[in-house]
Amino acid sequence: MVRGGNEKLYRKVKAERDYLNARRALFDGASNKEEVMRMNFGRAILAGVVGGTVMTVIMALVRATMMPQANPEMMLGTMTGSMPGTGTWVMGFVIHLIISAVIALIYAVGFEYVTNRAGVLTGLGFAIIHVIIGGIVMGMMPMMHPMIPEQMPPPGAFMSGMGMMGTGLFVIEHLIYGAIVGAMYTPVHGELGTSVEA
Fold first, then answer.
1. Do 63 and 156 sit in the same domain of this protein?
2. Is 89 in the same domain as 185?
């Protein structure tokens, strides 16, 4: 048992130790918060917009040469209830870019906290998951779109409504998107030297 002067010393040491532990806990909490926020939002959004634009350009070329019915921007625009037209296509294009930017943020979370790296190959890996989810959503489009199937043909899961060529185009486009996002996004961890680029 500690008594007298030794007891005062014991209390002083204990108080200092408790203070240091409290400071350490506070610092660790701040570090964890900083870790959560350590993601390059701007680069992810830019990569998503570029990837989405490239997808639109590819689809426009295909539409002009062999598949005139391939028009996902018009499909997105008419989801608002607007009739097909130039303005509706532009609206669908904007919606497509917004969706592309949001999905790129999801890719970025994966790059930062799952693979701890980004690059073409890593982006392609995430794109495979993207293809599967996107293909299923396309198959559900008649349940979400007010004009399908009464006024517009259903695209089908993985754009299978347009045949094997449509499905192939759907897969290739999303793989290209993933490669672009992976190539353009550099994890903040990588910039600090704690990650490796693929």
1. yes
2. yes
Q: For residue 115, which of 50, 176, 186, 177 has the smallest C-alpha distance?
A: 186
How much is the pTM? 0.77
SS3 104: helix
Return per-residue pLDDT of the chain as tens, 198 residues.
Answer: 445 566 666 666 666 676 666 556 555 544 444 454 578 999 999 999 999 999 999 999 999 998 888 899 999 999 988 999 999 999 999 999 999 999 999 999 999 999 989 999 999 999 999 999 999 999 999 999 999 988 899 999 999 999 999 999 999 999 999 999 999 997 756 554 444 444
Give yes or no for a contact between 77 and 88, defined as CB atoms under 8 angstroms apart. Answer: yes
User: Alpha-carbon distance 86 to 138, whole Å?
Assistant: 23
Q: Do 24 and 46 lie in a common domain?
A: no
CB atoms near residue 81 (< 10 Å): 10
- 3-state SS class at 118: coil
Give the span between the Cα atoms of 8 and 2, in whole angstroms. 9
The one-letter amino acid code at 143 reads M
Two tokens, residue 162:
């347009």
Integer angstrom CA distances of residue 62 from 66, 130, 166, 169: 6, 21, 10, 9
**Do residues 13 and 143 lie in contact, with contact meaning Cβ atoms separated by under 8 Å?**
no
Contacts of 98 (CB under 8 A, 6+ apart): none
Domain that holds residue 120: 40-191
